[in-house]
Amino acid sequence: MSLYTRLRGALRGPPPPDVLVPAPSVEAPEPRLLRPEPPPGASNYVILILDSCRFDSFVRAKPRMMTKLGPVQKRWTYATWTAPSHYNLLIGLLPHVSPANVYASDYYKDDFLRFKDRLNFPDLSFAKMVPNLWLPSYLQSVGFRTNMYVSMPVLNPTTPINHGFDDYALMDHHNDVTKMIRRMRFYEERPSFFVLNTGETHYPYATPDEPENHWPRISGVNGVFKHLDDHLLAGNLVHQDEVPKFFDDAKMKQLHQRQVDAVKWVDRAVEELYDIVPDNTWITITADHGELFGEKGYFGHGPINHDKVIEVPFVEGKLR
After folding, report:
1. Strands 298-300 vs 238-239: parallel, antiparallel or unpaired
2. For site-directed labelling of 117, which of 9, 44, 45, 83 has its Cα 20 to 30 A away?
3. pLDDT, mean of each 10-residue run, the chain (320 residues)
4. The whole model's pTM is what?
5. Rounded alpha-carbon distances, angstroms, from residue 142 to 86, 129, 206
């Protein structure tokens, strides 16, 4: 049974606001961990990754909830595909600015030290993280709980990226961030670190309220991918020469608009995230990479060098 066939029984849209049942923001007692006491006053930290969301799609969507965190920045990702982008993120390298006249090593160190503010952890040490260069393990070593919920099979729990997490899960459906949000738990005894990789903004840019038989289909692609499961596992770079005839300019514009609409849906879902996070929570919202919608004859992302594949949105802050 394919990944998308399993979606037939998925939630068809977010419940009306008056019937939302958020996960409890704080539970007690916390499951016992053999871990040091956390830094006093350290913040919870949530990173929400909108898979494949390019910068201009985010801006065109005019997200109201996500921009409550702060102004939207254009940043650049270190990689053009999901797995390597998340690897970079988990060594502490969020999508970057592009400063002139700096050494890369200095930028990496300074960028990592910005986690002092995000985590409210003044004693955070780049030198102590360096031995294994893995943010989740480092946070565990200083007393955090660590969690990651993913939508894309290339990030499934059997891959090496599942290291240093107390709770790691590939979700049943690729496009339902609300299920991730309702799985989240916070505890008074220690801060939590969450990474959420959600796929509403990934091809086919489908939200849970849209029946699967309405999704766009890629068929007849010569050797690039034959099934959507293969597409998710292998990336979705397709050159125009290999695209079926219906992938004309009008179709590309429709696909781009679908991604914009998916951002709008996630924006509404983020309101539930805001409802359940404790006051001392920093949130970063960004993307792992962008997407091409016909530029230079390409659709998708992967092994191609183009600005629209590396430009991503970046917004972060605390609500309260």
Report:
1. antiparallel
2. 83
3. 34 34 53 85 97 97 97 96 95 92 88 93 88 92 96 94 96 93 94 97 92 73 36 50 61 93 97 95 97 84 88 94
4. 0.84
5. 22, 11, 39
